[in-house]
Each structure stands twice: as C-alpha cells, then as structure tokens.
Amino acid sequence: AAAAGAAAVAMELLAEGLTGGVGGLVGRAVAFPFDTLKVKLATGDSGKGGLAIIVRRTLQEEGPLGFYRGVIFSVAEAMYQKSLYVLVYAFLKDFYKKLARREPTILASLLCGYFSDLFCVPFSMPIEAMVVQLQSAAANVSRSAIIKRSLFTYEGLSTSLKSGRAYLVLSLKAGLEFAIFDKCKALLLRMRSSEQSMGVDLAPASAFGLGAMARAIATAVVYPYARGKALSQAQLAPSAYAAVLQVLRNEGAPALYRGLSMELSRGVTQAAVMFMVMERVRSAIKDLILG
User: Fold this and answer.
1) HSE-up of 33 (CA within 13 Å, CB side)?
2) Are 185 and 210 in contact (CB under 8 A)?
3) In sequence order, which residues have a C-beta less than 8 Å from that of residue 236 and are 6 or more positions away?
4) Which of 54, 108, 184, 269 has a CB 3.0–4.6 Å from the CB of 104, allowing a cystine?
5) φ, ψ of residue 105 in degrees (nearest 5)
6) 260-290 and 204-233 helices cross at what angle (nearest 10)?
7) How far apart are CA 124 and CA 231, in angstroms?
8) Are the C-beta atoms of 201 and 182 separated by less than 8 Å?
9) CA-CA distance, 47 to 45, in Å (whole number)?
10) How far apart are CA 267 and CA 38, in angstroms?
11) Helices marked H in the chain
C-alpha cells in the first residue's frame, strides 16, 4: 500500500511537471519577439535610440525572422526548465503540507518557488545565456560561432554559470509569481465553490488575467537586477551586480529600468499564456498519465 501510494504521488508530480512544460513552451513561443526586443533595449547603448528605431533596424537588417533569433533553443529551454520547476515546486509544497499539516502560507509558497527556481539554474543557464547573446549580437555576427562558444567551450559554459549567480536574487521573481498566483487562485476557487461544485482549475480567462497580474508584480520588484543579468550575459559587464553599479555610475538610477515596459510586455504575455495553458491542459494530462 505504501509503495502504491508513493507511486501515485510520483505520477501526480510527473503530471504537474509535464503541465508546466507545456505551458512554458507555449508561453515562451508566443512572447519571444517581446523577449528579443527587451534584450536589445536592455543591452543597447543609450544613444542607439528607442524601441521604434530598434524595430526598424531589425526589420531592415534581418526581416521579421530577426525577432525570432534563437527561438528554437529558447522554447526548448523553457519547456524543460518550467517542467522541472513546476515538478520541484509541487514536491516542496506537498512536503510542506505533510510537515506543517496545513496549506502553505504565501511566505512558504514564495520560498518553495524561490528554491525550485534556484534548483533549475544549472540546467537552464547555458542555453539562456546563449540565447541572450544571439539576440543582442549584430546581424553580421556568426550565429554558429556564438552557439559553439556558448555551449561547447569551457569559457562559454563557465561564463554562463557565473552569470547564473544573479539568480540568488532573481529567483525571487519566480517565487513571488507562483505564490501570488496560487493564493489568488485558491481564493477564486473558494468564491466559486459557494456557487457551484469546487473545481481545481481556473477558467482560461481567469488564469490569463491572474497570471498577468502575478508576473507584473514580480517583475517590477526585481527588474533592475534582471537588467544587470542581461548586460552580464551579453558580456558587457563581469557580473549582474557589477552591471547594476556600472549603470548607476554612468547613467543614473532611472537607466536601471530601461526596457521595463518591454519586459512587462514579454513577461506578462508569457506568464499569462503559460498559466492559461497549464490550467487548460492539467486535467487532460493527469487523465492521460493517471488514467
């Protein structure tokens, strides 16, 4: 009986992980052009113009496909990273519930999300750093050379893992995002249960709106450090912290938020679509795996 129970829990976690993977893939694919523009805004010099100039230059030099440079690697990374993240997050929350004999508080959910994201960093950083370099490179730079240097040299791998230290701060974003979503989802489901039978999944529109709100709040909290990480991954600063100090010294505090509007457009779109897809496919995936 104990073995059967453990197997059922493992399959439940696997289903959650696959749900996160599907949501992460679709969300990243939909929002990827925003991601490219965000990286170009965050890593470009202040004298190179704003969003309109960057869009015009990209279209002139590369056409519409210029906004999708590195998309295959990015959606693959999003799929396995989010799958692993949601699996670990579900495991930690379940562990907390057994230990505390109650549902996780918002602080407990935040910590579960934070440590889940940190766990994923070594597996996702090399591809993530490579995609940032592909997005920020000039049109005439060899893409194959960037891929080879990032993934198949000691220098490229060590640099990407070094930039991953920024996630000691940035993992708070994932923790905040999922904690806010989970708590608001529980509240909405309780309100709905007073009118009809209690469900476990939100309607697509509700999941979309709630995911957008959760991501917007989390992004606003950590964005300055996120810009520092982007500068570090584009090899314009030795570390995220050094990049933040460099921007403060050379351009002032407001420059730390350059690209925030595009990051909100990208991140909110990606998270909203991801949570909507996850709520939509969770039952189907569990039925497929658990029978």
Assistant:
1) 11
2) yes
3) 43, 243
4) 108
5) -70, 170
6) 120
7) 18
8) no
9) 5
10) 10
11) 2-43, 51-62, 71-100, 106-136, 143-151, 154-163, 167-193, 204-233, 240-250, 260-290
- Give the pair of three-digit tokens for residue 198: 């209690």
**d(C-alpha 236, C-alpha 278), whole Å:** 36
3: its two tokens: 């073995």
- Count Cβ atoms within 10 A of the Cβ of residue 177 and give its class: 0-12 exposed, 13-18 middle, 19 or more buried: buried
Cβ-contact 272, 208 below 8 angstroms: yes
What is the C-alpha separation between 157 and 280, in angstroms, rounded? 36
What number of CA atoms fall less than 13 Å from residue 146's CA on the CB side?
23
Per the CB < 8 A criterion, the answer to whether 18 and 289 are in contact is yes
Residue type, 119: F
Structure tokens at 21: 């993977």
